[in-house]
Design brief:
globular; two-stranded antiparallel sheet; transport; mainly alpha; 7 helices
Length: 213
């Protein structure tokens, strides 16, 4: 991984690392595939996590740990989408809004998880130089990917909330390309949110008896 952690180029005074650039390009591709509800979003996400793990390891251990968790959740998402493929009218997975109970559970898990991970980072300062925002992104990413694996539209809202903290944090840590890519993530999230929202309404619309299909 040493060659991947070398500098690729300088942009606006920021040093862009090969691992940071390649990993985030794969992450961007994974998000675009998720928008299209392609099952290949998960192996691409796994590969992005693997490359970014190498980028962060030894410098930001907490961020490296986040990527390890991302890889585990990517495997879970692959398994879930394999089970659910073909349920949508176009042969892909079907999407839906979460129930209020599911939303409450995810919000509670995100809040409790953020506190727990932040306290862990504070107890072991080598894991993160800024425990609270790093913990927020860590847990928020896991919650977003879980919602995506379950085909929930709320996945996009969760990613948007992660982006709001992820952009300035990546710039502050010197991972400029990650920061730039997170801005593009924001645009993709808005488009993907609209697409899944419309599809969920179409899926949920009841078919009247005797009406044409």
């Amino acid at each position: 991984m040493n060659s991947l952690n070398s500098e690729a180029f300088t942009l606006f005074g920021q040093h862009i690392l090969w691992s940071d650039m390649i990993g985030n390009l794969f992450g961007l591709a994974a998000l675009a595939l998720g928008w299209r509800r392609s099952i290949w979003t998960w192996p691409v996400q796994f590969l992005a996590g693997l490359i970014l793990f190498g980028a962060f390891f030894g410098h930001l251990t907490g961020s490296a740990g986040k990527q390890a968790v991302v890889m585990v959740v990517a495997l879970y998402g692959w398994w879930q989408w394999q089970r659910g493929k073909g349920q949508g009218e176009d042969g892909h997975i079907s999407v839906r809004f979460a129930t209020w109970r599911e939303r409450g559970t995810m919000v509670a898990a995100a809040a409790a998880g953020t506190v727990a991970v932040a306290l862990l980072f504070k107890a072991y300062p080598t894991l993160s130089w800024d425990p609270w925002p790093d913990a927020y992104i860590f847990v928020g990413t896991v919650v977003a990917m879980y919602a995506q694996a379950r085909g929930m539209v709320e996945f996009w809202f969760a990613w948007l909330l992660v982006d709001l903290v992820g952009v300035p944090l990546n710039f502050a840590n010197g991972y400029a390309f990650s920061g730039f890519v997170y801005v593009i993530y924001g645009a993709l999230v808005l488009w993907g949110m609209r697409d899944w929202w419309l599809r969920s309404r179409k899926t949920a619309r009841p078919v009247l008896e005797g009406a044409p299909a």
